[in-house]
Each structure stands twice: as C-alpha cells, then as structure tokens.
Amino acid sequence: xxxxxxxxxxxxxxxxxxxxxxxxxxxxxxxxxxxxxxxxxxxxxxxxxxxxxxxxxxxxxxxxxxxxxxxxxxxxxxxxxxxxxxxxxxxxxxxxxxxxxxxxxxxxxxxxxxxxxxxxxxxxxxxxxxxxxxxxxxxxxxxxxxxxxxxxxxxxxxxxxxxxxxxxxxxxxxxxxxxxxxxxxxxxxxxxxxxxxxxx
Length: 200
Hints:
Helix content: 25-40%
Low-confidence stretches: 1-6
Strand order of the largest sheet: 3-2-1-4-5-7-6
CATH topology: Rossmann fold
Number of helices: 7
Number of domains: 1
Shape: globular
Distance between the termini: 35 Å
Strand content: 15-25%
C-alpha cells in the first residue's frame, strides 16, 4: 500500500491491490477505464511507462490534471473513443462497469487488449436476495470496522445505484465473454475479474 492510499480508504481503494498485482511483467501501456481523479492511474504509472486514464466526468478529469504526473488523461466515452484495437498491455477498471452496458464494456475492453495482455476489473453488482443477504450483512459489519479504523474517503465521481446487473449475472457474463477468466466475489460488496487474453 502506498502512502497516498494509506491516507485514503474506501471500498474501491481497498481492492486496488488486486489490480496492481495483476499487471503483467514488462507491461508498457495501461488503460484505466473510469479513472476518476486518477488515483489508480497514478499507481499504475509506478510500474507501467505509458498510462492513459479515461473518464466521462469533466470535474474528475480536472482534478486528475492537477497532479504532477505524466499520465495521459482523456475526457471522453470509453466505448466510442478512437483507441487503437489491441493496443494496451493491461486494462484496469474499478467501479465503472455498472455505469455502462456490461456486455458492451467487456467487449470493448477485450478488443483493446493485446494478445497476452491482462484485464483487471473490480466492480459493483446488485445483490440477489435472499441468497446474498448473509454475505451482505457480513460485508457491512467488516466495512464499518474499516471506516472506524481508517476513515472513509468519498470519491468525487458520479455514482450509479443500484447496479443494473446482479452478481450471478456478472459471473455468467464474464464466463461467456472472457473464457478462462477468474471471477471472485469479495466481502466488501465488490467482485473482481482477472483475465489474460490468449495469444493468437
């Protein structure tokens, strides 16, 4: 955990480490989808020479541009921005996929990733009741302990609630669109997907 993240905590930041651990060795180009004010993009830049962050929210991009880093920030729609296909070694997305059609978002990420590259997602989904109730209650309890111990940083980006896709639906979608991906449901009301694009 870096000093910057050590001063901030929320449910999304808690899982940044899963994204950072997934960065493949030798990655040269990274894309942070829904970068917000750029915290994860700056973290990626510590190990990846060329990092691009894209977000639709102008105030968030304005905040990101205030940091003295060399991340390329783009104000625009990830689904339509003219990125070159298969041009990124790693694509990261935290709490962004539920802001768009999930299938369209996954397809776009898949197309922009080079063969051998890694897609790393941390997302929110809608609980399927009553099956998810025990896990959700446990997550609220654990999240409360974290808030008490670390405080809670409220990100400046817009929110979408409730997420349109449930956790089971997200797992199914990932399996269908990203064969061989690793889907995991996390305690603090998040899921992660890690996928390496096949060579050839």
